[in-house]
Write a structure and sequence with these properties.
By secondary structure, the chain is an alpha/beta fold. The chain contains seven helices and nine strands. It has helices at about 20-30, 60-75, 100-130, 150-170, 200-210, 225-230, 235-240, and strands at about 10-15, 35-40, 50-55, 80-85, 130-140, 175-180, 185, 200, 215-220. Strands 3-2-1-4-5-6-9 form a seven-stranded parallel β-sheet, with helices on both faces. A two-stranded parallel sheet has the order 7-8. The N and C termini lie far apart (about 45 Å).
Length: about 240
C-alpha cells in the first residue's frame, strides 16, 4: 500500500522558514521531495533544487484562497499538504493594552488558513487518492490549555476537531488526514518560555516518520501523556496549567 512520502512527492508546507518547518523542509528536500513553501518571508530561503518559495500573509484569507488556486492550477501533482504555520500571542485578554486584532490573526493563521488550503487542494488530492495526505500540526494544548495563551489553545483544539471531522469525510477517498500533536518545542515562538523542550529537529523527525506510516494521530514526546492526564487527574492538570 502506498503511504504519504513513500515515493518522491510534491509537498506544500506552510511556515517553512524557521523552527519545525525549516527542519521539515531540509529533511523533505534531502529526501528527494519537491516542496512549495508558503510563508511571510519565504523568498529569503536559499534557492535549492526542488524548492519553490512563495511570500504570503497567511492571516489574509483572500491571499490564501488565491495562492491555493494558483498552486493547484500549476501543480496538479501536489500530494501532501502540511499546515505547520502558527501564531501565538502569550498575552492575557484582561490586559487593557491587548490588541484585539491579534485575535483575528491567530484564528486566521492557526485555523482558517489550514481549512482554506485544505479546501483548495482537496480536488487534486482526491483525484490522486492513496498516498496523499493533509497534515495538521497541532499541540498538546488542544487537550490541556494553559493560562496565558487562551486563543492559541482554542485554535489548536479547533484544529484537532477539524482534523477528526475531515478524516471522516475523506475515509473513502484514500486521502490521509494526519494530526501531529506536539509538546513544547524549542522554536522562535517559544523562546524564553518553558523548560524540558524537545528540539525542532526531533519534532520534525517524529512528524515525518508518522506521516510515512500514515498514522492518524502522531503524539510526539510528552504530548502523548496529556490526554491521559486530563482524563485521570483533571483537577491536578487544571491546577498545573493555571499558572503556566
Amino acid at each position: 500500500m502506498r503511504t504519504p512520502l513513500s515515493l518522491s512527492s510534491k509537498v506544500v508546507l506552510t511556515g517553512g522558514t524557521s523552527g519545525i518547518g525549516a527542519e521539515m523542509l531540509e529533511k523533505l528536500l534531502s529526501g528527494g521531495h519537491s516542496v512549495i513553501v508558503l510563508a511571510r518571508s519565504a523568498s529569503r530561503l536559499e534557492p535549492r533544487n526542488g524548492l519553490e518559495a512563495i511570500d504570503i500573509d497567511l492571516s489574509d484569507p483572500s491571499a490564501v484562497r488565491a495562492v491555493a488556486a494558483d498552486i493547484a492550477a500549476r501543480h496538479a501533482d501536489v500530494s501532501v499538504l502540511i499546515n505547520n504555520a502558527a501564531l501565538q500571542y502569550p498575552v492575557a485578554l484582561t490586559d487593557p493594552n491587548f490588541d484585539p486584532l491579534k485575535m483575528d490573526a491567530e484564528i486566521a493563521v492557526n485555523l482558517l488558513a489550514p481549512a482554506l488550503l485544505t479546501h483548495g487542494f482537496l480536488p487534486g488530492l482526491r483525484r490522486q487518492g492513496m498516498g496523499t495526505a493533509i497534515v495538521n500540526i497541532s499541540s498538546g494544548l488542544a487537550f490541556l490549555p494553559k493560562q496565558r495563551t487562551a486563543l492559541y489553545c482554542a485554535t489548536k483544539a479547533a484544529l484537532h476537531s477539524f482534523s477528526q471531522s475531515l478524516r471522516y469525510q475523506l475515509e473513502a477517498d484514500g486521502v490521509a488526514v494526519i494530526e501531529a500533536i506536539l509538546p513544547l518545542v524549542e522554536t522562535p515562538m517559544t523562546a524564553g518560555r518553558g523548560s524540558g523542550k524537545i528540539s525542532a529537529r526531533e519534532a520534525a523527525e517524529a512528524i515525518l516518520a508518522g506521516v510515512r506510516r500514515a498514522r492518524p494521530e502522531i503524539h510526539v514526546g510528552k504530548a502523548r501523556l496529556l490526554p491521559l492526564i486530563s482524563r485521570l487527574a483533571p483537577g491536578l492538570s487544571r491546577k498545573m496549567m493555571r499558572g503556566s
